[in-house]
Amino acid sequence: MSGAAKREYKNGFVRWVEYRLPIFSAADAIVGRDYPSPKNLNYLWNLGSILGLALVIQIITGIFLAFYYIPTAEQAFNSVEHIMRNVNNGWLLRYVHANGASLFFAAVYIHMIRAHYYGSYKAPRELLWLIGLAIFALMMATAFMGYVLPWGQMSFWAATVITNLFTAIPLIGDSVTIWLWGGFSVDTPTLQRFYSLHYLFPFIIAGLVMMHIWALHTHGSSNPLGIEVKGPQDTIPFHPYYTAKDLVGFGVFLLILAFFVFYQPVYFSHPDQFKPADPLVTPPNIVPEWYFLPFYAILRSIPDKLLGVVGFVSSILVLFFLPYLDTSKVRSAKYRPVFRQFFFIFLADVVILGFVGANPPEGAWLVIGRLASAYYFIHFLVILPLVGWFERTKPLPESISTPVLGDAGGGAAKPEPAE
Amino acid sequence: MSTTQPDEKVTRRDFLYIATGGVTVVGAALAGWAIIDSMNPAANILALSTVEIDLSPVEEGQSLTVVWRGKPIFVRNRTAEEIAQAVAEDSDNMKDPQNDADRVQQPQWLVMIGICTHLGCIPLGQKFSDPKGEFGGWFCPCHGSHYDTSGRIRKGPAPTNLEIPEYAFLDDTRIKIG
Fold this sequence. Notes:
The structure holds two protein chains of two kinds. Chain A is mostly helical. Chain A is built from 16 helices and two strands. In chain A, strands 1-2 form a two-stranded antiparallel ribbon. The longest helix of chain A is centred in the middle third of the chain and has 32 residues, at about 190-220. Chain A is globular. Chain B is of the alpha+beta class.
């Protein structure tokens, strides 16, 4: 947007509005012709817009589900069955909402893994990463509370186990937990506040998304090479190039969503969710949704209650320090051979933690869980800083255009200001 | 600040700023307290805080689960063997050391809140067919805590013994919890 000549709009109505409320030039500057983007973005840069789509799908389906849902311990399970059996297309709304949540997390994890691989969170984009993590934290809270609403067995016991994490706080833990519950156990008051917050948080997320995009636009997208844009020759306008590419991503996302909704609608669910909540019977193996499994594994692998909770919380908090723990000046793993290997080991570690979280904490799983949990923290706290200091990185290209066009592509030999 | 400058006097305006700011902070704190306190258990929930239990149908070696404040209460009519084991193990190495005698009013009747002190699951051991853990009492399947015949934590992640609620014997076969 900066420096672009004031765009002349041909349509008279557009011109009339633009003169009074410059909304069209704003759109052009945000996702349009006047937002220059690096021309080498690969498909991993599609996840941002896909996440926006996922949020919109969740909000729309959620609003319509809320017309029929009743948040009381007596009625919640039945009202969900009512939606499934009697409400016109209720099954569709619910399955899109439930599977949409899973795919939302799948997309956000790929988005975050991409940021780690390409070092997208490094200066000057630290705040962009931190806002993203705030969104992630709210997403986790929203998803957790949403999982409680159908009031199945897993709902109830997930709520019980997770709210009981607060009892680990020394001295005030018990009062904090009773305050959270609004009673002496998870019951209607708990369900109703979860419902209220489950409805509220997505709108806070939407507000944070605007700040996320604002921060993104301040320095522009990072890119697979991890070097800054050197001039106009390194960029293409967001519209039509990336709007078109993002639509391809939308298509893929919607196809996957449709597959689960129409062919495997309860793939991500749990058999115990088909039983109404029973406060007197704990299911044999309480497991969270798949997207919480690695964190749950860390919680369970520490044999002390307070330290387990500390480990669980730290496993998320450590991500907030990632821009400072990853000490290398080179962003992209493409030019960091040592980091690149540790990156894939870390990915494998998180997948292993996922399997550990899904299995009872006994025998070999307990040992594997402890090792994998330890490695999770070692990756962030030891490996990343050390690799950043000692690694011999590969030479970076002069500019985004140079590797493609050779010296003729501009770059250092022919510097041009970006504006 | 104007107050630190020797040549500037404290004015009525300074007083008004501080008074306004002070009232705003106190007002916001009071409003905030009202909002936060609204999340605490309501009067109707607090009103349901006692239950009476008839113990007469519970034979020796049997257990009873009742609900108090939405929580299961484990009542067990312990066998002489279980009592003897609990007392004999008083001096064993425990995470939360407590004598069996301090956990019961009558040795025969063990009354506990049946909620694992780890993360709130319901331990197994009330039914004959349930696993009772390595110490013959209760076993929490969620994260593997073992409780003994006195409900004391002996192995696993739970930090404390199963909690004893406030209760009183109304007569030989009836107790009131809460």
